[in-house]
Amino acid sequence: MQSSRTFIIFTIFLIAILPHATIVQGHSFSPFSSALETLQKQLGYTFKSISLLRRAMTHASFSEENNKAFSILGATIIETSVSFNLLSKDVDISAKDVENFFEG
After folding, report:
1. Which residues partner with 80 through β-bridges?
2. What stretches of the chain show up as alpha helix (H) in DSSP?
3. Domain residue extents for the chain
């Protein structure tokens, strides 16, 4: 469970530092980009549009764009990823235990 909480905190941290990311010679050195790649690997799914994933994982209040709908999607992606992580560690975990993890 500690690694799941660490993952959530790390993801939130990366979202917060996005404005400080730089691109040099077409290559992104943003930790946020790296986190998006890691997220895709953990989900076992490659998104067709990284820009939409980036918007989904960006808090609604961060951008001038209206990210409200995408922020809901981003929160769902994080919860799904964490739920998969919890289930991979304990197949018999109850839905209530998963909910308690997110609340606690």
Report:
1. none
2. 2-17, 31-43, 50-56, 68-89, 95-103
3. 2-103
The residue among 82, 80, 64 whose CA lies nearest residue 8 is 82
Interatomic CA distance for residues 30 and 21, integer angstroms: 5
Instruction: Report yes or no on whether pTM surpasses 0.90.
Output: no
DSSP state for residue 23 in the 8-state scheme: E
- What does each of the 104 residues of the chain score in pLDDT, given as a tens digit? 566 677 777 777 666 665 555 444 445 557 888 888 888 888 888 988 888 888 888 776 766 655 677 777 788 888 888 888 888 899 898 989 888 888 87
Residue 28 three-state SS: strand
